[in-house]
C-alpha cells in the first residue's frame, strides 16, 4: 500500500475538547495509508471572529507561523477543522501570490526565528480521504456495513466557502462528504438548506447564546425533516454546536436527540476500532446508536 | 428617522475598501446576500442594508447596533453575491473599523486573550484532563510548552491586534467553555 | 321550420368543404373541446372532411390539407385556429401551391375569440366556437375564386425627419439605388443626436460618429435633402404617393451661401438658442450648429428687425430679406418612411420638482452643458451663480411610469442618466452624485456592464421615487425615500437633474392625419403588429422607424431605420406588387350614378370619371365596404365580402345550435 505522510494540524477544539476525535483520526488514517505527524508547537489558526476581524495582518502572521511548522516538516498540512482549513488555506493562497504581504509577514516571523516559504499545500481531511485515499479503499477497509442507516451530512461553511479560495468542493452541490458517508454503507439523506450555517461561527456562540441556539434550531428542524439516525460532520466546531447545542435546546424543552459524529469516529467504528478511545465524549447521547448499529457497549 | 445626506462622506467607504471590502461598490442591492443569511431573521444584522449604508457613508447607523458582530462569517453571501461584492469581506472591514473605534464584543476579547496566554482559543487544563480520559497521546501543540506561547505572544505584540483586542498582561481564563470565534 | 328549410336551400350544394381544427398545443385545446367541434362540423351541409391537428400551421399540417385537395377533391378550406392576421398568409400560400384558388379559404379564429377570453368556461367557449365554425363553413360555401391585381411601384422613397433613424434609412435606400427625398423641418439634419455630448454604451462622442453620416447624406447624389421643410400633403397610394412639401423661406440663397457665419457675427438681435435648450443666445440669422448639414444660414423671420447689416456683410450676396410666400415642391414616391423622432416631457407639468428654479435642469440641458461646444463649453455650472456644483441628484422617471403624465416607461432615461453621472464623475471625481430610481432598466447589450462601472465609480444609487424638490438657502433639498433603509432620505444638492421622458413629437398627430396612419394612446405612431411587424403601419407603403414609434436609444433607432429601408426596398425592388383583390366593384348595369358612394369613401377611392361612370381606384380601395352598404341600387359588390357571403354568416350565427 502506497503510504503518504501529512502534517496533522489539530487546532484547538479537537485536542482540548474532543480528544477522542483526535484519536479517531490518528488511528484510522494510517490504516488507509496516510500517516499523520504532530505539528509540534502549532497554535490557534487563529479564528476569523477575533484576530482576522480586527486586523488582517495579525491573522496572517499566526496562520503563517502554523504553516511554517508544516513547511519545516516538509509535509502537506491536513486540517481537521473547517475553520482552521479555511483560514490556513486562505493564508497560504494569499501569501503565495502576494509578495508584499509575504515580505511583511516574514519580517515579523523572523523575530521568532520562523519563515513562511510557500512550499506546501493545505488540505482538509475530507480532501485527503476522498481525493487522495479514495472511496474504494475506504469501502475495503471497513468491517461492518451500516446499510440502511440514515445520516444527515453537514458540510459546514468553511469547508465550502469562499469556494474560489478553498476549492475543496462544489460550493452549491458538494458531494465528497456524502460519498465518504455512503462508503460506510449509510444513506446520506436530503434535507432542506443543507449547506447553511450551524450558527456557531464568527463569535456568535460566544457572544449570543440565544441567537446561536435559534439558528441551530432552524438547522435541526430542517435536518429532522428527513428523520436521520445521525448527523455527520467533519468539523469539530460544527460538531460541538450540534452536540452542546442540542443539550442547550433540550434544556429549553426542545429535544431533537440526534446523535452527532465526526466522520472519522464513524469510520473508526466501522473499521472495528474500540469505541472507548474514539467516540466517548458527547453531550448528546449516542451510545444507543453505537450499540444498535455497531453492537458495542 | 429621516436621513439627511449633505456632505460627501467618503471616509467610511474608503476605509472599508482599504480594510478588505474592496468591492463594496459593486453591490446593486439585489438582496441575494440577505436572503441567504442565516442570522438575518433573528438579528439586526441586515447585510444588504449594511452594504448600502457603507456606500452612503452612514457610519453611525452601522456601528450603532453593533450588528456587524452578529455575522457568523459563513460566507454564504460572499459565495452567492451575483456582483462579487464580497459582503463578508465588507463585514470584516467594518469590524476592523469598529475595533479601531474601540467597539468590540467581549467574546472576541476573551478568545484573543486565551490565545495570547494559552496558545489556544480554549483552556488547556481541562483539555489535558479529557485527553487522559480517552488515552490520547501527549499534547504537543502550542499549549504544551511555554516557549511556543512566548513565540505567539511576541508575534501578537508586534501587531495592532494587541491593543485592539485588549490583551491583558494578567489574564485568567473566564470559562472552560468553547467560546469559538471561527 | 319552414324558414330554415328555405335558408338551407341557399347553401351551394356543389362545394366540398374540408374543415381543419387546430389544437395549437393547449392554446386552443385547453379550453375548447376539439372533439366536440369535429363531431359537430361533420354533420354540417357540404362538409366532406373534418380533421384535427396539434399544430395545423406546421409543414405536416399544411401537407394534410394539400393531400385532401389532391386526393379527396376538397374545394373549400375552413381552418378553425388562430388569428388570420398572423396565419392567413400561410394557408393561402398552401392553397396557391395546389390548383385551388387561394381565396377559397376561410379562417375562423377560435383562439382569440373562444379559448383565450373564455378560458375558465370550457363549455361555453366550445359552444361559441361551434357557432363561429358553422358561420365559417356557411360562408365558405359562397366563396368565389379571385385573382390578385398587380400594381406598379415607383422606385423612390420619402423619408420624413432627418434624425439618426431617418439618415440611416435614407442612406441604405440610396446605396441600394433608390432615389430618396429627406424632408427635415429644422435647418439641419441630425436630430436629437446632434445635441448629445457622448453616447452610451461606448461613450464615444456623438458628433464624431454622427457627422460622417450627415456628410454622406449631403454627398450622395440620389438623396435630395429638403431641410427647413415640412410635409404639406400626401395623396395617392402604395407604389405612387404624390407629396407636397412646404419649403419655409430662409431669406438666404443656399446656392450662394457657404455657411461662413459672418452674417451671424454682425446681426445685433439675440434670440434664445433652442439647440442649446435656451441656455444661451443665437442671432436672428444663424446656422443651427457647428456641424450642420447643410451648413447654411437661415433668418428667423419672427425675430429679424430688418436692419440689413447681414445683407451688407455677406460678400456672396446670398441674403435677401424681402418676404415671399413659402415655396411648394411636388414629387412622387413609391414608399414613405416616417422618422420624426420625439420630444421631451415638459417638467413644468410636475411643479413639485420646481423646474422653475434655475438649478433644477433637464437631462438634455445637462447634456448641452457637458458638450464642449455647448453654452458652458463643457463645464458644469450652477445656472444660478455659475459655481461648480458639489452635490448632484438625478431624479428618474420624470413624466414616465406615472398615470398622471405618461404611464409608459421611457426606456432609456436610466441609461442616459447613468451616462451623465459617469461622465461627470470622470471629470470631477470629488463630485457627490446620487441617482434616485424606482427600477434601473439598463436593458441593452453592454448596458448592465455600463451600470456596473457607474457603481464602481462611487455613484450612489438610491431606490425610491423623489417626492419633491425644495430650495433651502442656495441649495436644493431632494426629498426621497430609501427603500433599503426603509427611511426617508433627503439629499442636499447643488444641482438637480430631471430625467425627463421621451414623448411623441408635438406634430405627430397632424402628420398621422396627412399620411392616414395611426397613433397609439401614447401619441407615438402605431406599428401594425408589435412583434411581427414593428416598422409597418396600417398603410401598406408607409413605414415608421426610430423614436417616433416609441422611446428608444440610438442603436434601436438605427436598427429600425434600416429595417424600414429594407421593408421599403423589398416593396419597391420589383417595380410592381401584387395586391389583394379585396376592393369594391361597380356593377355598371345597376348603377344610377347617384354618387352617394363617392361622398362616403374615406379613402377617396371612388370617383365619377370622364366617361360619366363611377370608377374604383383599386390601389386606394381598402375594401371597407362602406360604399356597398350605402348603395341604394345595390350596384356595388365588395370582393370577398359579398352580401351573400355575409348573409350566410349571419344566418349561421343566428341559428340556434343544438
Ligand atoms: C438627454 C438624452 C440623452 C441621450 N443619450 C443617448 C445616448 O447616450 N445613447 C443613445 O443611444 N441614445 C441616447 N438618447 C436617445 C437618442 O436621442 C434617440 O435615440 C435618437 O435621437 C432617436 O433618433 P430618431 O432619429 O428616431 O429621432 P430624432 O433624433 O428625434 O430625430 C427626428 C428628426 O425628425 C425631425 N422632425 C420631427 N418632426 C418632423 C416633421 N413633422 N417633419 C419633418 N421633420 C421632422 C426632427 O427635427 C429631427 O431632426 C438620449 C436622449 C436624451 C433625451
Ligand atoms: S448579493 Fe451582492 S449585489 Fe446583491 S445586495 Fe448583496 S452584496 Fe449587494
Ligand atoms: S457571512 Fe455573515 S453576512 Fe454573510 S451570510 Fe453569513 S452570516 Fe450573513
Describe this structure in words.
The complex is a heterotrimer of chains A (297), B (182) and C (658). With 297 residues, chain A is α/β, with parallel strands linked by helices. In chain A, 54% of the residues lie in helices and 11% in strands. A 4-stranded parallel sheet of chain A has the order 2-1-3-4, sandwiched between helices. Chain A has a 4-stranded parallel sheet with strand order 6-5-7-8, with helices on both faces. Chain A is globular, with a radius of gyration of 19 Å. Chain B has helices at residues 11-18, 32-36, 47-56, 59-64, 76-80, 87-100, 106-118, 124-133, 146-157, 161-164, and one strand at residues 3-5. Chain B is mainly alpha-helical and 182 residues long. Helices cover 48% and strands 2% of the residues of chain B. Chain B has 10 helices and 1 strand; from the N terminus they run E-H-H-H-H-H-H-H-H-H-H. The radius of gyration of chain B is 19 Å and the shape is elongated. The two termini of chain B are 35 Å apart. Chain C folds into 4 domains: 3-146, Rossmann fold (3-Layer(aba) Sandwich), CATH 3.40.50; 156-248 and 327-341 and 505-572, 3-Layer(bba) Sandwich (FAD/NAD(P)-binding domain); 343-503, FAD/NAD(P)-binding domain (3-Layer(bba) Sandwich), CATH 3.50.50; 580-639, Alpha-Beta Plaits (2-Layer Sandwich), CATH 3.30.70.20. Chain C is built from 18 helices and 34 strands. Chain C has a 5-stranded parallel sheet. A 5-stranded parallel sheet of chain C has the order 20-27-21-22-23. Chain C has a 4-stranded parallel sheet with strand order 2-1-3-4, sandwiched between helices. In chain C, strand 22, helix 13 (447-456) and strand 23 form a beta-alpha-beta unit. Chain C is globular and about 90 Å long. Chains in contact: A-B, B-C. At the A-B interface, helix 1, helix 2, helix 3, helix 4 and helix 9 of A face helix 5, helix 6, helix 7, helix 8 and helix 9 of B. Strand 1 (3-5) of chain B pairs parallel with strand 26 (487-493) of chain C, so a sheet runs across the interface. One iron/sulfur cluster binds at residues 27-33, 48, 51, 77, 81-83, 85, 87 of chain B.
Amino acid at each position: 500500500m502506497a503510504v503518504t505522510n501529512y502534517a496533522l494540524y489539530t487546532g484547538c477544539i479537537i485536542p482540548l475538547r474532543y480528544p477522542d476525535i483526535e484519536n479517531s483520526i490518528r488511528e484510522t488514517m494510517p490504516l488507509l495509508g496516510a500517516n499523520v505527524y504532530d505539528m509540534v508547537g502549532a497554535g490557534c489558526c487563529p479564528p476569523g471572529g477575533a484576530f482576522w476581524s480586527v486586523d488582517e495582518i495579525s491573522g496572517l502572521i499566526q496562520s503563517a507561523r502554523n504553516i511554517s511548522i508544516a513547511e519545516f516538516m516538509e509535509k502537506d498540512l491536513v486540517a481537521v477543522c473547517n475553520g482552521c482549513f479555511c483560514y490556513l488555506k486562505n493564508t497560504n493562497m494569499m501569501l503565495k501570490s502576494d509578495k508584499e504581504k509575504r515580505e511583511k509577514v516574514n519580517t515579523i516571523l523572523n523575530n521568532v526565528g520562523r519563515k513562511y516559504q510557500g512550499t506546501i499545500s493545505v488540505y482538509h481531511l475530507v480532501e485527503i480521504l476522498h481525493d487522495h485515499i479514495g472511496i474504494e479503499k475506504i469501502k475495503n477497509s471497513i468491517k461492518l456495513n451500516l446499510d440502511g442507516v440514515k445520516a444527515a451530512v453537514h458540510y459546514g461553511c468553511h469547508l465550502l466557502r469562499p469556494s474560489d479560495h478553498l476549492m475543496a468542493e462544489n460550493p452549491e452541490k458538494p458531494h465528497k462528504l456524502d460519498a465518504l458517508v455512503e462508503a460506510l454503507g449509510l444513506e446520506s439523506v436530503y434535507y432542506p438548506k443543507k449547506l447553511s450555517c450551524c450558527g456557531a461561527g464568527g463569535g456568535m456562540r460566544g457572544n449570543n447564546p440565544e441567537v446561536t441556539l435559534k439558528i441551530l434550531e432552524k438547522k435541526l428542524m430542517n435536518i429532522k425533516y428527513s428523520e436521520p439516525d445521525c448527523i455527520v460532520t467533519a468539523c469539530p466546531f460544527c460538531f460541538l454546536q450540534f452536540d452542546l447545542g442540542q443539550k442547550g435546546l433540550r434544556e429549553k424543552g426542545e429535544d431533537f436527540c440526534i446523535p452527532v459524529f465526526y466522520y472519522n469516529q464513524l469510520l473508526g467504528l466501522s473499521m472495528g476500532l474500540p469505541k472507548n478511545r474514539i467516540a466517548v465524549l458527547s453531550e448528546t447521547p449516542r451510545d444507543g446508536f453505537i450499540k444498535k448499529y455497531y453492537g458495542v457497549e | 428617522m429621516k436621513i439627511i445626506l449633505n456632505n460627501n462622506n467618503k471616509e467610511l467607504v474608503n476605509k472599508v475598501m482599504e480594510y478588505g471590502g474592496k468591492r463594496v461598490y459593486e453591490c446593486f442591492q439585489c438582496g441575494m446576500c440577505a436572503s441567504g443569511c442565516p442570522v438575518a431573521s433573528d438579528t439586526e444584522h441586515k447585510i444588504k442594508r449594511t452594504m448600502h449604508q457603507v456606500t452612503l457613508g452612514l457610519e453611525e447607523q452601522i456601528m450603532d447596533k453593533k450588528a456587524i458582530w452578529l455575522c457568523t462569517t459563513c460566507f454564504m453571501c460572499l459565495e452567492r453575491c451575483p456582483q462579487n461584492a464580497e459582503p463578508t469581506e465588507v463585514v470584516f472591514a467594518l469590524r476592523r473599523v469598529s475595533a479601531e473605534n474601540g467597539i468590540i464584543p467581549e467574546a472576541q476579547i476573551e478568545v484573543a486573550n486565551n490565545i495570547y496566554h494559552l496558545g489556544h482559543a480554549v483552556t488547556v487544563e481541562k483539555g489535558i484532563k479529557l485527553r487522559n480520559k480517552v488515552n490520547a497521546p501527549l499534547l504537543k501543540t502550542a499549549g504544551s510548552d511555554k516557549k511556543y506561547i512566548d513565540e505567539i505572544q511576541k508575534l501578537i505584540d508586534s501587531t495592532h491586534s494587541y491593543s485592539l483586542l485588549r490583551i491583558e498582561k494578567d489574564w485568567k481564563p473566564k470559562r472552560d467553555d468553547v467560546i469559538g470565534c471561527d | 321550420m319552414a324558414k330554415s328549410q328555405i335558408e338551407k336551400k341557399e347553401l351551394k350544394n356543389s362545394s366540398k368543404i374540408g374543415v381543419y381544427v387546430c389544437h395549437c398545443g393547449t392554446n386552443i385545446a385547453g379550453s375548447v373541446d376539439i372533439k366536440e367541434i369535429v363531431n359537430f362540423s361533420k354533420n354540417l351541409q357540404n362538409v366532406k372532411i373534418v380533421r384535427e391537428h396539434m399544430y395545423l400551421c406546421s409543414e405536416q399540417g399544411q401537407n394534410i390539407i394539400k393531400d385532401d385537395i389532391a386526393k379527396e377533391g376538397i374545394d373549400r378550406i375552413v381552418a378553425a385556429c388562430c388569428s388570420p392576421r398572423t396565419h392567413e398568409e400561410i394557408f393561402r400560400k398552401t392553397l396557391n401551391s395546389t390548383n385551388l384558388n387561394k381565396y377559397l379559404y376561410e379562417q375562423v379564429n377560435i383562439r382569440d375569440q373562444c379559448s383565450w377570453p373564455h378560458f375558465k368556461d370550457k363549455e361555453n367557449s366550445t359552444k361559441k366556437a361551434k357557432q363561429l365554425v358553422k358561420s365559417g363553413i356557411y360562408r365558405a360555401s359562397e366563396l368565389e375564386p379571385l385573382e390578385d391585381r398587380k400594381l406598379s411601384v415607383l422606385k423612390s422613397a420619402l423619408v420624413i425627419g432627418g434624425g439618426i433613424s431617418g439618415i440611416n434609412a435614407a442612406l441604405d435606400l440610396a446605396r441600394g439605388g433608390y432615389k430618396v427625398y429627406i424632408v427635415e423641418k429644422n435647418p439641419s439634419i441630425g436630430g436629437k443626436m446632434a445635441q448629445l455630448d457622448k453616447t452610451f454604451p461606448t461613450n464615444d462622442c456623438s458628433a464624431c460618429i454622427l457627422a460622417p453620416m450627415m456628410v454622406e447624406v449631403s454627398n450622395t447624389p440620389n438623396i435630395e435633402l429638403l431641410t427647413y421643410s415640412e410635409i404639406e400633403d400626401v395623396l395617392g397610394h402604395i407604389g405612387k404617393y404624390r407629396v407636397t412639401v412646404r419649403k419655409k423661406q430662409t431669406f438666404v440663397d443656399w446656392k450662394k451661401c457657404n455657411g461662413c457665419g459672418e452674417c451671424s457675427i454682425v446681426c445685433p438681435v439675440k434670440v434664445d438658442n433652442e439647440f442649446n435648450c435656451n441656455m444661451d443666445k443665437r442671432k436672428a440669422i444663424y446656422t443651427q450648429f457647428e456641424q450642420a448639414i447643410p451648413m447654411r444660414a437661415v433668418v428667423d423671420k419672427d425675430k429679424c428687425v430688418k436692419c440689413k447689416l447681414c445683407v451688407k456683410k455677406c460678400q456672396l450676396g446670398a441674403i435677401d430679406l424681402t418676404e415671399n410666400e413659402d415655396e411648394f415642391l411636388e414629387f412622387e414616391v413609391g414608399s414613405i418612411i416616417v422618422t420624426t423622432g420625439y420630444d421631451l416631457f415638459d417638467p413644468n407639468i410636475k411643479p413639485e420638482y420646481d423646474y422653475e428654479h434655475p438649478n433644477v435642469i433637464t437631462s438634455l440641458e445637462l447634456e448641452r452643458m457637458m458638450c464642449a461646444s455647448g453654452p458652458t463649453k463643457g463645464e458644469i455650472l450652477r445656472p444660478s451663480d455659475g459655481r461648480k456644483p458639489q452635490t448632484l441628484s438625478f431624479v428618474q422617471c420624470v413624466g414616465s411610469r406615472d398615470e398622471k403624465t405618461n404611464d409608459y416607461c421611457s426606456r432609456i432615461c436610466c441609461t442616459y442618466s447613468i451616462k451623465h453621472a459617469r461622465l461627470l464623475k470622470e471629470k470631477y471625481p470629488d463630485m457627490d452624485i446620487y441617482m434616485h430610481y424606482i427600477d434601473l432598466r439598463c436593458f441593452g447589450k453592454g448596458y448592465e456592464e455600463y451600470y456596473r462601472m457607474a457603481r464602481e465609480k462611487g455613484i450612489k444609487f438610491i431606490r425610491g421615487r423623489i417626492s419633491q424638490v425644495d430650495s433651502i438657502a442656495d441649495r436644493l433639498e431632494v426629498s426621497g425615500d430609501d427603500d433599503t433603509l426603509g427611511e426617508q432620505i433627503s439629499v442636499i444638492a447643488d444641482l438637480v437633474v430631471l430625467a425627463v421622458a421621451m414623448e411623441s413629437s408635438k406634430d405627430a398627430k397632424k402628420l398621422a392625419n396627412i399620411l392616414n396612419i395611426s397613433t397609439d394612446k401614447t401619441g407615438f405612431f402605431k406599428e401594425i403588429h408589435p412583434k411581427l411587424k414593428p416598422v409597418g403601419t396600417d398603410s401598406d407603403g408607409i413605414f415608421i422607424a426610430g423614436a417616433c414609434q416609441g422611446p428608444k436609444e440610438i442603436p434601436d433607432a438605427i436598427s429600425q431605420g434600416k429595417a424600414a429601408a429594407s421593408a421599403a426596398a423589398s416593396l419597391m425592388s420589383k417595380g410592381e406588387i401584387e395586391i389583394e383583390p379585396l376592393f369594391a366593384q361597380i356593377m355598371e348595369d345597376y348603377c344610377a350614378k347617384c354618387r352617394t358612394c363617392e361622398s362616403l369613401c374615406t379613402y377617396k377611392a371612388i370617383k365619377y370619371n370622364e366617361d360619366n361612370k363611377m370608377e374604383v381606384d383599386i390601389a386606394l380601395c381598402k375594401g371597407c365596404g362602406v360604399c356597398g352598404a350605402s348603395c341604394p341600387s345595390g350596384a356595388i359588390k365588395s370582393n370577398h365580402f359579398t352580401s351573400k357571403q355575409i348573409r350566410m354568416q349571419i344566418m349561421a350565427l343566428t341559428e340556434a345550435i343544438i
